[in-house]
Design goal:
- By secondary structure, the chain is an alpha/beta fold.
- The protein has a domain of 145 residues: Pectate Lyase C-like (3 Solenoid).
- It is 14% helix and 27% strand.
- Strands 1-2-3-4-5-6-7-8-9-10-12-11 form a twelve-stranded mixed beta sheet, with helices on both faces.
- A hairpin with a 2-residue loop joins strand 1 and strand 2.
- The N and C termini lie far apart (59 Å).
Length: 256
């Protein structure tokens, strides 16, 4: 593969062409640009390269043109990443803080073990979104899926907020089977319709209250602004709130 080993840095901005590059030298270039003071990076020609933005910290903006590979923004703490295209699996794996925006759909296991920050997905997401999400003190991780999400949404979820808006889902279910399985903290909100058969017995379902809508308002505003969707379209619909029925869903499985 042809690999480019140089980049130009001007006033804190750098452009890194990723065409035909292996993921390892590409990531080395990204981290080298940051080490040299880059605060705004544009990576073009991305085609499945993994681990982009992993472990990056601080006030940094990264734009990605193309389709990044697995584990985008894993362990990230602070930067913002905007993907102009779809993205593969594992976005925001154990992410601490920051923002990831995907102008398309995303794969499986989004936000695994996520501890803070926000992930906005314009379209659909795959299986096991938000599993093992957790929150501590004032840090509440958030994932907003504009379309539908696959099975095991919020599996073993311990904290944070997941919002599924159902835009463009047509007649397909907005969440897949086993939604909230093992959930013992946090909140899942589903806009429009929710089929009982897809919801785990580990959660309680209720229609959103005024307090719940206040909780959702900043997330809906962020999604509407970023993807140029009328806010009224998101607000003028009922929301179903899923919360854990117990903080020990498997407590009765253990002998005492």
């Amino acid at each position: 593969m042809r690999e480019r080993q140089t980049f130009t840095l001007r006033e804190g901005r750098a452009h890194l062409p990723a065409d035909n590059m292996h993921y390892r030298p590409l990531n080395e270039l990204v981290h080298a640009a940051v080490a040299r003071g880059a605060t705004h990076l544009r990576v073009s020609g991305v085609n499945g390269q993994r681990y982009l933005a992993d472990g990056l910290r601080g006030d940094l903006a990264l734009e990605i043109e193309g389709v990044p590979g697995n584990d985008l923004a894993a362990f990230m703490d602070g930067p913002s990443v905007e993907v102009f295209g779809n993205a593969q699996d594992g976005i925001g794996n154990t992410m601490n803080s920051g923002l990831v925006v995907v102008h398309g759909s995303a794969g499986d296991v989004i936000g695994y073990g996520m501890r803070g920050g926000t992930i906005l997905i314009r379209d659909h997401a795959g299986y096991r979104v938000g599993i093992h999400m957790k929150e501590y003190a004032g840090s509440r991780p958030t994932i907003v899926v504009g379309g539908r999400a696959g099975a095991f949404l919020g599996e073993y979820m311990a904290g944070g907020l997941i919002v599924v808006l159902g835009l463009g889902a047509g007649d397909r279910p907005l969440v897949g089977d086993f939604c909230g399985t093992g959930m013992h903290g946090g909140t899942i909100a589903v806009r429009g319709r929710l089929e009982e058969a897809h919801v785990s017995p580990h959660v309680r379902v209720s229609e959103a209250t005024d307090e719940d809508r206040a909780l959702l308002a900043p997330q809906l505003e962020a999604y509407a602004e970023r993807f140029e969707v009328p806010l009224a379209l998101l607000e003028d619909e009922r929301y179903w709130m899923l919360r854990p029925a117990s903080n020990r869903p498997y407590g009765n499985k253990y002998a005492i």
